[in-house]
Amino acid sequence: MLVSNMFKPLKYLNTIKLRKYLSSMIDKKQKFFIQDEVQFKMNSTLNHQEKLNECIKHGLTSNTVLSNEWIFKINIDHLSNGLVLLKKWNPKKMDDLFVLLQLPMKRLVYLTKKTHIESKIVPQGNRVYYFASTFEKKPEQVCYHLMRYKFLFTRDFTTLSHIYHILIENNVNKNDIWKDTWIFMYSIDQINQRIALAKAANLPIKPWMLRSTPEIFKRTIEIKQENRVVLNKDSTAQYLAKRLKVPEKTIRYISSKYPTTLRVSPTKLKEILDFLLNEGFKPTHILSTPRVFTHSISTLQERLTELRDLGAEPTLTALCKNKTTYQELVNKLILKNTKLFI
After folding, report:
1. Cys-Cys crosslink for 210: which of 56, 150, 194, 304, Cβ 3.0 to 4.6 Å?
2. Belongs to which family (predicted)?
3. Distance CA 215, CA 221 (A)
4. Residue 312, class by beta-carbon neighbours within 10 Å (0-12 exposed, 13-18 middle, 19+ buried)?
């Protein structure tokens, strides 16, 4: 008992040393060579060494193992059984699939069986390699994505592949599909119907449009058509340049400093421009305060009326203040008017 208690502090110190060692190596993003593995074994417990050896025995590189500290937190039996299962996926290299070791064992067993059954119909042999090839991603990145969106592992592959080809044939950007993979959960009929409606409205197709509610989709079409009327074949930058009577390059320069300017819908730009110009603001005032376009027209109208009622001649800078500083300005004007009245 006494001997056992004597070794507990040593075991604790070894664990601390290992943790510090791994952290320092990962933070510095250094590559792990043979001497790093030797250093690891000098600072690690037998349990950690056993896990490292088990991983290397099944084809993982020491670089991958030592770069992912979470591996050492996995139960040794889970680790060993998981590596055996992943080999049945016929990986080009084990480093491609190791991320899947984080899955519960029952889930990994199920997916391994499914992968084996569909290996002859899935290009590249399994879904990880299929998605990696299709979307030009690294297998490790794909593994994390598929663990997040679990249905990508289980959705009928023929349906999934069919949806992908429909989207690509209709010029949907590949990166947009990857960022919005929920589209694969929707029916082919709905996707085809939405694509037909979007084409009829001459709209560029985005995955979110194809799976939105009918109300949102209808309103999207209306907004796009309204924007088209406003712009009249001009770009947003060209439209602003014409309205504010400056070269387009001036608008481009401003938008480089305030990127949100060109992201505002043309209908909102028109509404704000009409309001400000009618209220006597000059194009130079608007150009010097581009953030005015990010405010709602109702807020601008309310503040302009309030400040004028308090006897001030508002600037666009005043209209664009945040709630706190704007209220401070209002309080000062109220105090000033009170003193004058007294």
Report:
1. 194
2. Belongs to the mTERF family.
3. 10
4. middle
Q: CA 288 → CA 101, 230, 315, distances in Å? A: 55, 23, 11
Among residues 58, 67, 71, the alpha carbon closest in space to that of 28 is found at 67
Q: Are 268 and 297 in contact (CB under 8 A)?
A: yes
Q: Report yes or no: 130 and 123 within 8 Å, Cβ to Cβ.
A: yes
pLDDT in tens, 123-163: 999 999 999 999 999 999 999 999 999 999 999 999 999 99
Q: Which residues contact 112 (CB under 8 A, 6 or more apart)?
A: 85, 86, 88, 89
- CA dist 106 and 112 (Å) reads 10
Burial class (CB in 10 A: 0-12, 13-18, 19+), 331: exposed
- 3 state DSSP class of 149: coil
Where do the H-state alpha helices sit in 44-156?
Answer: 46-57, 62-66, 76-87, 105-118, 127-135, 139-148, 151-154
d(CA 153, CA 155): 6
pLDDT for position 324: 93
Question: What is d(CA 195, CA 170) in angstroms, rounded to the nearest whole number?
Answer: 8
d(CA 95, CA 182): 27
CB-neighbour burial class of residue 80 (10 A; exposed 0-12, middle 13-18, buried 19+): middle
| Residue recorded with tokens 């208690």 | 5
Q: Per-residue pLDDT tens for 24-50?
A: 544 444 444 444 555 555 555 678 889
Contact residues for 144 (Cβ-Cβ < 8 A; gap 6+): 99
